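TL;DR need structure tokens for one chain.
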Amino acid sequence: MSSAPQAAAEPRLLPARMLNEFAYCPRLFHIEFVEGLFEDNADTVEGRSVHRRVEKKEEPLPEAGPDAPPAIARSVTLSSEALGVIAKIDLLEADGAVATPVDTKRGQAPDLPEGAYEPERVQLCLQGLLLREHGFRCDQGSIYFAGSRKRVSIAFTEELVGRTTELTAAARAAMDRKTPPPPLADSPKCPRCSLVGICLPDEVNYLLEGCAQEGERRDEPPRAPRRLLAARPDSFPFYVQGQGLAVSKKGETLVVSEKGTPVREAHLKDISHVAIFGNNQITTPALQALCGAGIPVSWFSQGAWFYGVLHSLSLPNILLRVEQFRAKDDPVRSLALARGFISGKIANCRTLLMRNHPDPPATVLDGLAKHVRLAAEAETADALLGIEGNAARLYFGSFGGMLKPRPGEAAQAFDFATRNRRPPRDPVNAMLSFAYSMLVREATALLFAVGFDPFLGFYHQPRPGRPGLALDLMEEFRPIVADSVVLNVVNNGEAGPDDFVTSRAGCAMKPAFRARLIEAYERRMDTLVTHPVFDYRMSYRRILEVQARLIGRFLAGEIEEYPAFRTR
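>> reply
TL;DR here they are.
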């Protein structure tokens, strides 16, 4: 037994707070504690705020014994190797050999005979068992519900102690499992869970039920998933472009200054990642704050060449990366994902042509439909590569027909003959390359946040400095996001010949137009669309996240097939 700060404790000890989570939902426990993933919502922020009011500097455990004087201690950390647990007690009331733990909760006291729900009671009881290990007699504890300002006594009965011991053993066993428990089925707990966007309970169950019903040939379709996650994320990219700008930190705010004068700012909580273009600077305190908040920073050349990304060391979910590397060495799983990426991409190319080409050639549409089937059935990675190349030639051969610039000089400037890059030689290719660069940056930052290694792909083979998995993930979104952005700015008259500079070195966009293209890209990513599998609306940025997490669910063995995103 020991009384030591949690940071110095044995890392495999189970925190009492996590026992609460396990009793509430074993899958929530696994995602948060084993995989290391977490998201805030209003409830979790409020809960931390309540605890900040009661937490003080950590105090030592009072002396235990019949002659010990009465004492009150706050934020007492106790651990026990025998129990395999650790806990921080909000408030401890000691009187001689008797101790009473007091735990603080943010909500209202429930109207229950037991005084509190089981997760809260077993968490408190575990604190009592720790106090017993440290020489106190502890027969009861209290929960203070801040919402109703009410203190409820909880007796540590034999039944509660037995249940606490049982759940502790189960939670400790779950700590060593690589795959999370199955999602709760249509549970009322899910809508207010902060991890619902990571867990995807209804979506995973829907995919599992669909596979089971297909295999068993049931007539009744699976129940459509509820839309439990917000249609749009709460944070967005923060772009820094121009020349000679400086990014610094002021409190919890990121500030962009030009020659010492602030020109723009944003709160850290509203930023998903930072993208810096060209000759601009960022201070060390700003980088430290961004790393501390888990916000990646990407650097680009003035011409939008993606140089690299900075991310904090707090990368979550090592188990996911282990499975990612294992799957890369498994030709069956690796090819299954690659088929999904490329068949989805080709299907979306075909859809974009049907939507935007005034007279799409039937031979091209038929050819793309054929290549969707071929990609879904490709037997090798090399065969898939050839199928994608043939489909790309069909698609880009008709791409120019979707461009409808203003007559005259503008029409000539936006002629499109073929896809070219490194460097792009004409305005359309310059815009396509820029939009793809934005998309790969978005996918890279997202994959870091989910817990993947963005550089190990399944379709794109590993190369130094190339984020292969980010390129995999963005395949389905190239036509419907990046290509669509280019079509919109040309066809809406937002791009003109004077927005580009062409030389022997290639074609480049002027800074003012690049800013407009970023705005167009952000509008597209914020557009609400209906997910073709789950049948609810959300933004492209949210869908990109959902698809990334579904890759993880496939690698974890939770779902049998990766459902590619194919727009309707």
